[in-house]
Amino acid sequence: MGIKDIFKKATNKLDEGKDPTCGMKINLATTKYKSIYQGKVYGFCSPGCKETFDENPYQYADPNC
Ligand SMILES: [Zn+2]
């Protein structure tokens, strides 16, 4: 495995995200809907999910992260 593959793998892992409101898999690098809560970036699949999160972020934010 070359350095490029390792970098690609690491990048993919960073981009991997989950919409905390509906549980859908999203890509943090490409999603248009993002919120920052307590220093962590959350991505969403739709503006509606982002809105839901923004209203009550403490309900959806992952306390283990
Ligand atoms: Zn969603």
Q: What would you call the shape?
A: elongated
Nearest-angstrom radius of gyration?
A: 13 Å
How many domains, in number, for the residues? Answer: 1
Distance between the termini: 30 Å
On the 0-100 scale, what is the average pLDDT?
Answer: 87
The ligands bound in this entry are: zinc ion
Pfam families: YHS (PF04945)
Protein name: TRASH domain-containing protein
GO molecular function, one term: oxidoreductase activity
Domain TRASH: 19-57
If you had to describe this structure to a student in words, what would you say it looks like?
Residues 19-57 form the TRASH domain. One of its GO terms (molecular function) is oxidoreductase activity. The chain has 65 residues and is of the alpha+beta class. A two-stranded antiparallel sheet has the order 1-2. Strands 3-4 form a two-stranded antiparallel sheet. The model has no long low-confidence stretch (mean pLDDT 87). The termini are far apart. It has three helices and four strands, in the order H-E-E-E-E-H-H. It is elongated. A hairpin with a 2-residue loop joins strand 3 (33-37) and strand 4. It has one domain. The site of zinc ion (ZN) has 8 residues, from loops.
